[in-house]
């Protein structure tokens, strides 16, 4: 590869061609996101000024970003940012990249809490970048949001995002709900979890960019549901009667997932995404 470009328009064309040849699924989008990051501008500005000349430093940085993308690094790790629920989040290789499909679980949480009394008690289990916890703290008035993670490095990133968005989230280091104070048993209104749910046997078949993300945040055991089996009894202990547990799954896991939140202890159903794929389990603790 070389850098046979000198303007914004030429750089975009070069990157699109290079990324398309590398079997990139979204070459135009990735090229624009990376160049906008290099130039510190919005993507729309790239198309307003296609004749803008690039400096030698800008050309070098952009070419290196494209090289790294071709090597399989996620765009979010290259730019250090990812949008989620209309908010900008810091993202590093220590955390899973927030995904658009995960917005569905947040939207359902917001629906469940809408119209309720202020002061809802919410726990985000396995918070990672803090995208879910920060979104809930931002959009739910008066909610008390707690978030746990097994990784101190992940919590460091999550704290950065809390500071960026000036919200209040209480972070606790530990496995699943183990660090939640025992005094909160039977008092929590909502528990949300986007835990690893990829079956171990599928890990090596994932796209390179996904395999670049922390394995700890992806590998869900033989059928992908190991962590949820551990979480469900903990959630049942901490939720108030009528409180809800929401957790994200992969398409095709719905039937198996419902077996771990059975009646009469739970009233459970599957929420599908816009493509009618199974995506979220909604389990309400029986009264």
Give short descriptive properties of this protein.
287 residues, alpha/beta, Helicase, Ruva Protein, domain 3, seven-stranded mixed sheet, 11 helices, HemK-like, peptide chain release factor N(5)-glutamine methyltransferase activity, methyltransferase, Methyltransf_25
What do you see in this structure?
This protein is of the alpha/beta class and 287 residues long. The strands form two sheets. A seven-stranded mixed beta sheet has the order 5-4-3-6-7-9-8, sandwiched between helices. Strands 1-2 form a two-stranded antiparallel ribbon. It has helices at 8-21, 27-39, 43-48, 56-70, 75-79, 103-113, 131-139, 152-165, 208-211, 226-238, 254-258, and strands spanning 81-84, 87-90, 121-125, 144-149, 170-173, 188-193, 239-248, 266-272, 278-285. The chain is built from eleven helices and nine strands. Helix 1 packs across helix 2, helix 1 runs parallel beside helix 4 and helix 2 packs antiparallel against helix 4. Residues 10-80 form the Release factor glutamine methyltransferase N-terminal domain. GO terms for molecular function: peptide chain release factor N(5)-glutamine methyltransferase activity. Pfam families: Methyltransf_25, PrmC_N. S-adenosyl-L-methionine binds at residues 126-130, 149, 194.
């Amino acid at each position: 590869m070389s850098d046979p470009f000198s303007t914004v328009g030429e750089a975009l064309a070069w990157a699109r061609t290079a990324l398309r040849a590398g079997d990139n699924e979204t070459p135009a989008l990735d090229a624009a996101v990376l160049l906008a990051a290099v130039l510190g501008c919005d993507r729309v500005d790239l198309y307003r000024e296609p004749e803008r000349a690039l400096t030698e430093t800008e050309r070098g940085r952009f070419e290196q970003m494209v090289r790294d993308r071709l090597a399989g690094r996620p765009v979010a790790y290259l730019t250090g940012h990812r949008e989620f629920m209309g908010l900008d989040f810091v993202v590093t290789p220590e955390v899973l990249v927030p995904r658009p499909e995960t917005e569905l679980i947040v939207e359902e949480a917001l629906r469940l809490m809408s119209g309720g009394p202020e002061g809802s008690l919410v726990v985000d289990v396995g918070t990672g970048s803090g995208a879910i916890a920060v979104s809930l703290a931002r959009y739910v008035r008066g909610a008390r949001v707690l978030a746990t993670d097994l990784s101190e490095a992940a919590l460091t990133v999550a704290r950065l995002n809390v500071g960026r968005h000036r919200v209040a989230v209480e972070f606790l280091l530990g496995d699943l709900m183990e660090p939640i104070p025992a005094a909160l048993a039977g008092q929590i209104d909502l528990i949300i979890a986007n835990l690893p749910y990829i079956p171990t046997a599928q890990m090596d078949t994932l796209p390179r960019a996904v395999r670049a993300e922390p394995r700890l945040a992806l590998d869900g055991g033989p059928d992908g549901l190991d962590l949820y089996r551990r979480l469900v009894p903990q959630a049942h202990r901490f939720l108030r009667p009528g409180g809800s547990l929401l957790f994200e799954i992969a398409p095709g896991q719905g039937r198996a997932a419902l077996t771990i939140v059975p009646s009469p202890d739970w009233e459970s159903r599957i929420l599908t995404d816009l493509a009618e794929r199974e995506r979220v389990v909604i389990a309400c603790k029986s009264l």
